Task: structure prediction
Amino acid sequence: MTRLLRSSAVSAAVVLTLTSICAPATAQTAARNPQRPERMVETVHPQKWVLQEAARLDALLARGLQRHQATPQELADDGTFVRRAYLGIVGRIPNLQETERFLADQSPDKRATLCDRLLDSPGRTSHFANFWFDLLRVKSNQRQLNGEPFAHFIREAIQKDLPYDRFVSDMLTAQGPAHEKGKGATGYLMRDTNMPHDAMANTLRLFLGTRLECAQCHNHPFDHWTQKEFYEMAAFFGGIQYRDPSGAQKYAGLRNTLANEDQRVRARALQMVRQLTQGITGAGSGKEQLPKDYKYDDLKPGASVLANTIFGADVKLKYASTKSSDRRRRQRRGEDEPGADSRLALAEWMTSSKNPMFAKVIANRMWARTFGRGLVEPSDDWREDTKAVHPELMDALEKLMVKVDFDLRQFERVLVHTQLFQREAEPTDPQPGIAPLFTGPVLRRMTAEQMWDSLLTLVFDDIDDRLRPLDDRAAPVYQQFDELKNADPQELLAMIKSGRDPRREMAQEARRAAREQMQRDGALAKRAQPLLKELQAARRDGDLKRVAELAGRLEQMGFRLGERAGRGQEGDMLRASDLSQPARPGHLLRQFGQSDRETIDASSDAATVPQVLTLLNGFLDDRVLKGQSALARDLSTAEDGVRRVRIAFLTTLNREPTEDEIDTWRRQIAVNGIEVVRDLVWVLCNSNEFRFVR
Result:
């Protein structure tokens, strides 16, 4: 194995030289990538500070393990670590060049350097967006509501390192039209349109780890929460409206204008008006009514209750005068009863440093995201008797979250610089709902998004080069809103009758541009065909000098090997975060457990037969092993069978094959030809070693 690793460094240099000719320079594309974080992690805290904080966490964990008479796992080898770092931080496996570069690096601090580089990469924005899309139930289409502005808000918050307390506060207090640029945070409350009670239950579960939903209909059967307390919390969202009254008023006369129009025109007009008027208004009345079937003795059914917090500091709201004279004065002036700004009060109370649950819950979620389970399990059901598996460590994480000013990237940075992040995985699976001791990270299956993005890594040299601008999917929504909001009823009617639809026009323009690009690509491929045939012959003959020469000529023509997906269009070959949310039913993402976004954190990691069939008969065949994928190119340009076996293992499992693995597959290739390499890739991609984050 030692001899093999030494030869790996030499072969890596040859491959890197060849691929620098065959593929675009990733450093150049990454520099201008729209999803690269706005600032580098080192500009916020020096690495020395981060390592000190990480060492403090390791010491507390060691003390906890000692109390439990548990021994930490050994440090993982470089192959395990590089795969774990890429999957954990940027949500994909490293490609061949990234793997070999790391394995050949002899720097003593290469692990810390890699983690910082990945945290500064655009892939981190993409991967962290998936985390929030799942928790916040982001859907691109929700009846009359388009969810892309909300997704844009989340991506931008990640890319700009919006502090977590600001992130939550912005969602709880957002107002305005849901489809207007800059108002994407309204998507949080719009996700539970006309269901403020559900919105409050979800808010408490997400941000305070408190499951209060059972108290909506009766006193909680397993906890101390009462139905009255639920309605006191729901009162913070009292008075919320899910339509913009000014927009509705503007088009109030449209009904008369449409009286003599046919059903199709009326339906289209109604749809447009609904799109225009979707949004959040009302700062929060701080009042709510108990249900009519309320059955407890402390209050009467239907009684009004005022907003009140379930724990921590009391919130004092300023309510409008209830005197009859003041109400009559407001009525004479045509004034609505002023709100109590209860949503702002809720946000301030929830994100306050005096509310320890806010920092604890997100710190525990981030720990679970990094190491596989939380110190408290389940992470969204903390109770009075809840105790972390390592209490001192949990307290330290809470303080660290406050110390980094709720900067989640810096918090994650400390976690991935710990010794724990470098250790071998726990040897046994922890029981569901129970926190392990963390002698090492928990071995777990890839998420659907990690699986999809990792498979794309086999196709393209740089999948992050394909990341779209943060607002790419939301831009047509903003443009349509701007066009429609400035139209009066007559102009809107004229637009409908003419068949004009700004979003449809933009979609048609995008399709036209795509067709033109396909035509250009087709013409380029036709011109490149003779060179491609020569390239195939040179690969078969093992003439690497000729391969490099032909690859360079193709590159000059603009035909980039390793940037093509094989058969069919490549429009859907984007990272999971850039696709429609969630992916369509039947998509590989959904088959591998992507959430349908109907409930919080509803993704699945269960293994199914369709997953295997998808890989065997679909994606691997059509996208990876045929055509001009990066892996197919690397395998075909390899100088011999041993190198092909090593490429297959280093690309898919990110480790060197053992001597036995090399000998077995080399013999198969020698007897049955290069086609055996396809079988090898199938076997590796369908192995548990590929599917798991180890």
